[in-house]
User: Which sequence fits this backbone?
């Protein structure tokens, strides 16, 4: 190719002119076609984090439980008994917006590989999904495909999908979000890093053949806005084969158990280019690869295509030459393809050969570390960025119809339609299934450990859009509160930052504010960030998505035998509200149903919330609570209704105290509405035998614990001043809740 | 009692089955390439997606080397339990009648269901009472039991539809609410619900244990069961 053609080509590949100049500078010459392809991917936003890396430095990454922090394929924390739990969340937003089934399926496949790449057996998947409102055919198409794709991959590979969340909003209509989190378990001694080591060792490719699928995915899809021509990007979406990955998974874990590998790395975005250069960079070595040795699915592939293909279900490992036969034997047993394609060198260069002839030669440092990092130019927007949501509730609706509308709304209604499509049981560890508690709980008895782990994934983009800093703090608090509902203390946190185009000042401001909020909340709760992912340029024809930081946490549950659940379990239990919960309509679901959107959320006292979480965990761990349920979307009224409808047990509550808490300066009717439907962090509904609950409440400060009432009957009745203000049959609440999402797919 | 759980490439619930079996006896994994069954008393074909199930559920697994030995074992009266994908493999192998089609809802479904014991005189149900209800999870996309009407009449008359979904619990549109079906001799049972996922109070019900208790009785006391 002529120099002129190459110079035009770098722009097509997403590199700026100054980035291209810098490549020439680092190479000391013009890159050839192979080198340009490799650089364009390694220097893409997706691989280089060039707009976010500086900000991410604000997140705390060290803590007493951390075994592996950011930079490895997945993070890992210590859970005692010689075991580590590995976990990470990653996005597959752009591919899923183009082809939801395969996009979501390969999103799951990719995050599973990240976890077994460090030697952990994947035991759970959680998904955080965002779509446009379900009355849009496009949203239903995307959700239908994504849920089926997640189920297809997770069910077929035999990893339980145990939790997650699905939220809806107009800004996600064109750019849905598919974030998948995987949790794995490993004996600590099996954990392996990805750094290549040992000059002269072999670089071995395991798994699927390499085809033209996903070529340029990292730069074409993940690092640019989706526009009119998105359909023509379909060939860039990878196709998943969970059966192949199942074999590769079992094979890799056996290879690690037999101590046959020096290092292991998955092939994700940018394929061999990224895997080989990351391994070489971390090991401070060089790698030679011969693309002619790479098994190919189709003939006539060029060297650059082999280097950047994103074909799924492939792993790269480093093996001592003397152990290659033993590696082959294990691979044969699992019917996994195993090909030595290169070697570790001392050159600190990534050299690409084709049948021994050099076709590319690049300094590893230039590929991995020298991509320019950009400063953001954050600027608070002078006026709201988002149009308010479409109104779905008429002003003046009474409390009963308001509650029914909330329970049946896309965001709050049961997601049973989705989670029933996922195998949540495989592995025989699932103590709490989806729908039965706010956090999934998996026991570790089969892994040789006592106790269990709990996990949750949370984020509310609309609230972050109202207030990026406070909204991000709330995401961390909500995740921690979901864990507290099963008595779990967070061991570590992973996050996925889903934002629009950071080159726009107001998006940069959202990103900067949200990362600050995450950092402060993590420090406030003493939780370290062990890994994560950034997905930028999430804007389609409809404008930017809501800024959506998604937070995943794993915590330890000492005794899974006596856990409360979300529902009221029997009549005659006392009901209490724990936590410094101060509801407000700003950013609430009710506000959204009314077609309004606040600018700003109430400030919160992080220390008070940290103390309250500690108290909530202690209360749950004491083993006296039958019910513990986080107050989140839809406020206290929805939390109570959800607890009632789980087992058809009614409740009578008196909200005088809460109305007084919120009521200063509000008319009484308004204060009741805020107490019922207002939202804010810190609330937890609990229930149990009267003695236990009353003792618990007496032991806590009055501004963080209120007795609300008692379970029983077939209605949820809310009183103030000894007068019933809201009465609803539990069966009617259940119908609204169960049909809200399901009816869109029947 | 020694149980063997077959692991095909793509099996997912083989460790779950192994753990459940070990609550009731000794158990080990049998590899799909094994040509003998290591002297086990009971064979379990577990759930999952054997060989990816890309062609048709169970269609490839039935040709694996271990299935020759399993077929011989079953024909000689050895007790064989096929769970979910294992049921599909047994139908493909001709060890059980009928076939399993995609669920009527055309979606994978994971939920707890109630199953009634219609025939307590089989190797895997003899510890149950007739009509006893078991709470078991199902999780499958192709669990709709199908056979011709004449065949279904014969199966019912012979007591081969040993387990039935309770009213309102049929998750997949199975004919005659069939949840579990045996061969004529009653030593081979295939079922879509997962008894191995119902043996630990911490993770759900313990009703699935009844099937393992039954086969333990069958092995220790011999096959003579009052019909």
Assistant:
């Amino acid at each position: 190719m002529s120099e002129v053609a190459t110079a035009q080509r770098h722009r097509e590949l997403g590199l700026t002119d100054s980035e291209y100049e810098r490549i020439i500078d680092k190479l000391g010459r013009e890159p050839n076609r192979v080198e340009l392809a490799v650089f364009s991917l390694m220097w893409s936003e997706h691989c280089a984090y060039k707009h976010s890396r500086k900000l991410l430095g604000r997140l705390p990454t060290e803590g007493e439980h951390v075994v592996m922090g950011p930079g490895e394929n997945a993070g890992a924390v210590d859970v005692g008994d010689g075991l580590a739990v590995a976990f990470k969340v990653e996005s597959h937003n752009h591919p899923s917006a183009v082809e939801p089934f395969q996009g979501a399926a390969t999103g799951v496949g990719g995050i599973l590989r990240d976890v077994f790449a460090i030697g952990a057996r994947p035991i759970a998947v959680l998904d955080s999904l965002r779509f446009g409102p379900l009355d849009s055919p496009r949203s239903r198409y995307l959700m239908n495909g994504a849920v089926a794709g997640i189920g297809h991959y997770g069910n077929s590979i035999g990893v339980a999908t145990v939790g997650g969340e699905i939220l809806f909003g107009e800004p996600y209509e064109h750019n849905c979000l598919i974030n998948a989190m995987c949790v794995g378990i490993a004996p600590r001694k099996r954990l392996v890093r990805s750094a290549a080591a040992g000059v002269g060792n072999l670089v071995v490719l395991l798994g699927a053949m390499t085809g033209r699928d996903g070529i340029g995915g990292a730069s074409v899809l993940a690092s640019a806005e989706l526009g009119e021509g998105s359909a023509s990007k379909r060939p860039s979406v990878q196709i998943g084969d969970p059966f192949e990955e199942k074999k590769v998974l079992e094979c890799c874990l056996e290879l690690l158990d037999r101590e046959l590998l020096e290092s292991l790395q998955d092939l994700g975005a940018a394929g061999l280019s990224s895997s080989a250069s990351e391994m070489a960079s971390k090991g401070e070595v060089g790698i030679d690869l011969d693309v002619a040795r790479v098994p190919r699915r189709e003939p006539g592939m060029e060297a650059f295509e082999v280097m950047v293909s994103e074909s799924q279900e492939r792993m790269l490992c480093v093996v001592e030459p003397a152990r290659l036969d033993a590696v082959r034997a294990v691979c044969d047993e699992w019917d996994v393809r195993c090909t030595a394609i290169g070697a570790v060198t001392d050159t600190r260069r990534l050299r690409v050969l084709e049948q021994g002839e050099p076709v590319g030669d690049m300094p590893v440092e230039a590929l991995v570390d020298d991509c320019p990092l950009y400063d953001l130019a954050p600027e608070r927007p002078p006026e709201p960025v988002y149009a308010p949501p479409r109104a779905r509730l008429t002003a003046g609706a009474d409390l009963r119809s308001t509650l029914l509308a909330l329970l049946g709304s896309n965001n709050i209604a049961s997601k049973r339609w989705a989670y029933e499509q996922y195998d949540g049981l495989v592995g025989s560890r699932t103590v709490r299934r989806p729908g039965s508690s706010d956090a999934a709980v998996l026991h570790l008895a089969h892994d040789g450990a006592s106790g269990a782990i709990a996990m949750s994934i949370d984020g509310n983009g609309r609230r972050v859009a109202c207030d990026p800093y406070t909204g991000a703090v709330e995401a961390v608090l909500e995740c921690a509160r979901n864990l507290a509902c099963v008595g779990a203390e967070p061991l570590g946190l992973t996050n996925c930052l889903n934002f629009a185009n950071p080159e726009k000042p107001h998006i940069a401001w959202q990103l900067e504010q949200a990362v600050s909020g995450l950092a402060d909340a993590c420090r406030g709760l003493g939780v370290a960030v062990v890994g994560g992912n950034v997905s930028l340029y999430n804007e389609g024809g409809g404008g930017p998505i809501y800024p959506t930081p998604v937070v995943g946490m794993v915590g330890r549950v000492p005794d899974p035998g006596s856990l409360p659940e979300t529902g009221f379990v029997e009549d005659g239990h006392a009901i209490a509200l724990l936590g410094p919960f101060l509801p407000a309509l700003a950013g609430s679901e009710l506000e959204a149903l009314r077609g309004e959107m606040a600018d700003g959320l109430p400030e919160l006292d992080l220390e008070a919330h940290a103390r309250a979480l500690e108290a909530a965990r202690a209360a749950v761990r004491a083993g006296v609570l039958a019910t513990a349920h986080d107050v989140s979307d839809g406020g206290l009224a929805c939390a109570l209704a959800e607890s009632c409808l789980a087992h058809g047990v009614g409740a009578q509550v008196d909200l005088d105290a809460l109305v007084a808490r919120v009521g200063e300066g509000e008319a009484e009717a308004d204060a009741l509405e805020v107490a019922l439907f207002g939202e804010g962090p810190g609330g937890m509904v609990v229930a149990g035998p009267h003695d236990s609950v009353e003792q618990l409440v007496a032991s806590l400060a009055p501004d963080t614990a209120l007795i609300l009432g008692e379970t029983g009957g077939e209605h949820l009745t809310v009183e103030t001043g000894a007068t019933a203000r809201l009465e609803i049959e539990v069966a009617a609440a259940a119908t609204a809740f169960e049909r809200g999402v399901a009816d869109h797919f029947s | 009692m020694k149980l063997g759980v077959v692991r095909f490439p793509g099996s997912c619930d083989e460790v779950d089955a192994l753990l459940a079996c070990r609550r009731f006896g000794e158990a080990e994994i049998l590899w799909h390439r094994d040509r003998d069954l290591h002297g086990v008393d009971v064979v379990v074909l577990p759930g999952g997606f054997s060989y990816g199930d890309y062609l048709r559920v169970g269609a490839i697994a039935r040709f694996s080397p271990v299935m020759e030995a399993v077929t011989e074992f079953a024909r000689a009266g050895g007790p064989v339990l096929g769970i979910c994908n294992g049921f599909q493999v047994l139908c493909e192998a001709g060890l059980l009648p009928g076939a399993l089609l995609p669920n009527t809802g055309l979606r994978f479904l994971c939920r707890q269901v109630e199953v009634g014991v219609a025939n307590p005189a089989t190797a895997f149900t003899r510890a149950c009472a007739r009509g006893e209800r078991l709470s078991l999870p199902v999780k499958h996309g192709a669990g709709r039991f199908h056979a011709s009407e004449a065949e279904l009449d014969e199966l019912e008359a012979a007591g081969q539809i040993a387990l039935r979904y309770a009213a309102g619990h049929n998750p997949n549109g199975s004919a005659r609410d069939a949840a579990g079906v045996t061969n004529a001799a009653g030593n081979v049972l295939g079922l879509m619900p997962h008894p191995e996922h119902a043996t630990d109070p911490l993770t759900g019900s313990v009703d699935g244990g009844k099937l393992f208790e039954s086969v333990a009785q069958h092995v220790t006391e011999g096959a003579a069961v009052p019909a």
About this structure: Chain B has one domain: 2-221. The interface with chain A takes residues 9-13, 15-16, 19-20, 47-49, 51-54, 107-111, 137, 139, 141, 194, 196-197, 200, 202-204 of chain B (CB under 8 Å).
